[in-house]
From TrEMBL:
It comes from the Bacteria. Residues 8-62 form the Inner membrane protein YgaP-like transmembrane domain. Keywords: Membrane, Transmembrane, Transmembrane helix. The lineage of its organism: Bacteria, Pseudomonadati, Pseudomonadota, Gammaproteobacteria, Alteromonadales. This is Inner membrane protein YgaP-like transmembrane domain-containing protein. The chain crosses the membrane at residues 12-30, 36-60. It holds the Pfam family YgaP-like_TM. The keyword RNA-binding does not apply. The keyword Transmembrane applies.
Length: 78
């Protein structure tokens, strides 16, 4: 298995969300218990994304040039 950087917005979002959860739990454990609110914010954002499809991080990733899996599939069929 070869590890590669995410090349779609979906995969990049999973990576970003996972890293933010790990960071927020580490901050809660080692810095201050109040960082649990950061973890809860991340969970709430992921939940609303599941229902609405809107995510600020995805908008930033798109501006950085990442495309969705669907866009990549459509481009490869041309």
């Amino acid at each position: 298995m070869t590890l590669t950087l995410p090349n779609t917005t979906e995969r990049a979002l999973y990576l970003f969300a996972g890293l933010m959860v790990i960071l927020s739990v580490a901050l809660t454990h080692w810095v201050h218990p109040g960082f649990i609110w950061f973890t809860l914010f991340i969970g709430a954002n992921l939940t609303q994304n599941a229902f609405t499809g809107l995510c600020p991080a995805t908008a930033v990733m798109r501006k950085l040039g990442l495309r969705s899996e669907r866009e990549r599939a459509e481009a490869s069929q041309r």
